[in-house]
Write a structure and sequence with these properties.
Helix content is 74%, strand content 0%. The chain is an all-alpha fold and 112 residues long.
């Protein structure tokens, strides 16, 4: 069972959107150093599932803290943080899709 193609398409779309928001070019998928989506090894899928789970948790924590702490800031500072928050939300969605990809890939490779 192949990971759903729509996960990869959505992740690539979000990567482009994040790049646009950051005003920079992207490589499409924005893979992490050493990440190979075509790896045939279950240990790789397990590793990358863990990495993306860490990143998703970290970004969630950042967004939660941003939401709480913004109440303490001036209007001007809050307006600036909106851009950061938007970037974080797009990035979080991309990371969640990569996590879903690797979880699906792990299940696929474990079944073989």
């Amino acid at each position: 069972m192949e990971p759903p193609e729509d996960l990869l398409d959505k992740a690539e779309k979000l990567a482009r959107e994040q790049g646009r928001l950051e005003n920079q070019e992207t490589d499409g998928e924005r893979l992490l150093a050493g990440e190979d989506p075509n790896s045939p090894y279950p240990d790789d899928a397990e590793h990358w599932s863990g990495v993306y789970a860490e990143l998703v948790g970290f970004k969630n924590d950042l967004l939660e803290r941003l939401s709480q702490d913004r109440k303490l800031l001036s209007e001007a500072a809050t307006a600036e943080l909106e851009r950061d928050e938007n970037l974080l939300r797009v990035e979080l969605e991309r990371l969640k899709l990569r996590l879903s990809f690797w979880e699906t890939r792990r299940e696929e490779l474990s079944a073989e």
